[in-house]
Design brief:
The protein has about 200 residues and is an alpha/beta fold. The chain is built from 7 helices and 7 strands. Strands 3-2-1-4-5-7-6 form a 7-stranded mixed sheet, with helices on both faces. The chain is globular, with a radius of gyration of 16 Å. It starts with 5 loop residues before the first helix and ends with a strand.
């Protein structure tokens, strides 16, 4: 589903260092705003963070939810997150796996899809399939926090990420050009939109 080079790109030492430094920064303001909205309706439940990287979002969410699991397809990122977790004596859990690897029995009250994650998925059909897979792990009254990268430019534009313009490898990162484009995919995945903005989406079954 993801471009073949994604795990290799995120294993690059420069990107690993970049995302490691972000761990101490916590959530961005727009993420915090959505988290506050989630906590108002879902208290002390379970949370799954998809694309957890070195743990930036997961450590914050672990302070608000009883059980918190971060998953990522990049093994060195997960190893870095596990190291942080041990040092911080955090209750957050991490696992090197994809959404597809999760047992169908595993359900969560909150599923947090990290910033720009679906921008790495190469087609509309595959992005919709990804959202459907995510929703299969959501409890009936749960919510999905979703942060696609929306940018008013050509949909084929490839944007720099990780603070680096060129890491010597090709990668796929397509920007959504409008909120409406994202909403169309969400609705076709069979999800309801509780909140919609450039800064993030809150979804439910």
């Amino acid at each position: 589903m993801f471009a073949d080079s994604i795990e290799e790109i995120y294993s690059h030492p420069e990107l690993l260092d970049f995302y490691t430094k972000l761990v101490g920064c916590g959530l961005y303001p727009w993420e915090n705003a959505l988290l506050n909205q989630i906590c108002a309706r879902t208290a002390n439940g379970s949370a799954l963070i998809v694309g957890c990287g070195a743990g930036r979002e997961t450590f914050v969410l672990s302070e608000h939810f009883r059980n918190t699991l971060g998953i990522d397809i990049t093994s060195v990122m997960v190893a870095r997150a596990l190291s942080f977790s041990q040092t911080m004596h955090s209750k957050a859990q991490f696992s090197h796996q994809s959404l597809e690897d999760l047992s169908v029995q595993q359900k969560f009250d909150v599923i947090w899809i990290s910033i720009g994650l679906t921008n790495h998925i190469e087609s509309r059909e595959n992005r919709i399939a990804f959202l459907k897979k995510a929703s299969a792990h959501l409890n009936c009254d749960g919510v999905i926090a979703y942060f696609p990268d929306i940018h008013s430019a050509s949909p084929d534009q490839r944007r720099e990420f990780g603070g680096k313009r060129d890491l010597g490898k090709s990668y796929f990162y397509r920007c959504y050009i409008s909120v409406a484009q994202v909403e169309s995919e969400i609705l076709d995945a069979g999800l309801y939109i509780l909140r919609s903005s450039l800064d993030g989406f809150l979804l439910s079954l």
